[in-house]
Specification:
Length: 139
């Protein structure tokens, strides 16, 4: 009887050790999905500025080589943090308003602006989370 108990105990420990080993070595599906500028753009900007950044005539301005996109990064970050309205953009005006997107994190704003500055034919330097953080603090 004693022998049977210790044998079943041994089997129990051995099998639980094997199950444990199995879960540790089995590759886990990745739950970490890094935010990417493109995904943020598609989620929050595309509806107005369109997939190719060309905007909608008289309503939403293009994001292609405008002074805002290529110019001073501080001014660009503030468009996202504070929104924008009644501004002439490269000689045209737009009936819609750009809503504030200050609910995005510093990292998300940096990613989406870097994406915009490197897409649609634009070639301008990246924006860092640190840049956004500084501007947000000044608000
Ligand atoms: C509800 C529509 C709407 C959404 C959503 C929106 N925008 Fe805008 N955006 C506008 C409008 C309209 C203007 C121009 C406002 C004006 O006339 O002053 C503008 C202006 C801008 C400008 C400055 C002008 C230019 O064309 O270069 C930038 C840069 C910009 N938006 C980027 C973004 C980014 C990045 C997002 C997403 C995080 C975004 N916008 C989301 C409507 C929108």
């Amino acid at each position: 009887m004693k022998y049977i108990i210790s044998l079943s105990l041994l089997t129990f420990f051995l099998s639980s050790a094997m199950i444990q080993k199995n879960t540790i070595t089995k590759p886990q599906p990745s739950v970490y999905q890094p935010d990417s500028g493109k995904i943020i753009y598609e989620t929050y900007c595309l509806a107005c500025h369109q997939e190719d950044g060309s905007g909608v005539p008289n309503m939403n301005p293009p994001l292609i080589k405008t002074d805002w996109v290529l110019g001073d990064s501080t001014r660009l970050i503030n468009v996202i943090l504070k929104g924008l309205k009644n501004t002439e953009i490269n000689g045209d005006s737009y009936s819609n308003e750009m809503p504030s997107h200050d609910f995005l994190t510093d990292y998300q704003i940096a990613e989406v602006l870097t994406y915009v500055r490197k897409s649609f034919g634009n070639q301008a330097g990246p924006i860092s989370s640190e840049d956004v953080k500084k501007q947000r603090a000044k608000k």
